Amino acid sequence: MSNRLDSKVIIVTGGTSGMGSALAKRAASEGATVLIGARDKERGEATAAEIARDGGTALFVPTDVTAEEDIARLVEVAVSEFGGLHGAFNNAGGGNSQGALRNMEASFWDSVIALNLTSVFYSLKYEIPAIAASGGGSVVNNASVVGVVGDPAAVAYSAAKHGVLGLTRSTALDTAKEGVRVNALVTGLVDTPLWRGVVENHPEVANGHLGKQPTGRAADEAEIAAFATFLLSDESPFITGAALAIDGALTAGY
Q: Distance between CA atoms of 87 and 31, rounded to whole angstroms?
């Protein structure tokens, strides 16, 4: 494994499972000091301990990404404990199965927007100044294929992910001259614990999704982590403001 992220301090929200955990481990293996921000203390500390056993450096910081003060503290810990911040993978999110718009409670809408969009706003608000003060770096926001196409069964989630793309592009324009790059991943089916739960408990739903997937399979978490690590590294200096599909050609057919 290379050391593309050597001496870099990287925040990963939602870093206790799925793509977040995979990225945290990959970034640490490439030399980064990783701060894992998530709500689950047991899993967070276990992930940090696993990284340490493999020779990496990681710290779990209890974080509710829907609470602005938690995000502020997460960034402050990065700067105070490790001397700066050089990148972030804003990955926390969820709640994509909701039913039709006309049956949706406003409280449900608010919760999905808070978790998937407002959390990214909070993250960027505090990450960007810290990264700029550290000499520049890279932020990767995890969006979704439903950030570029609609889904009547995931109205709030789709609206939030469309918002993440707009937030990504606008922020990238604002920070380009500061040396802070901001990109978004347009991820499709990924073999996460959430997806495996769908396969096990709702095989008809899983088969329907796979039937639309040109590759006929979900991505491995490691494939997402490898690409995100590239974007966080100095090997991608001219990539910013982009919504980058890593979806096995799913959206190519739309």
A: 13
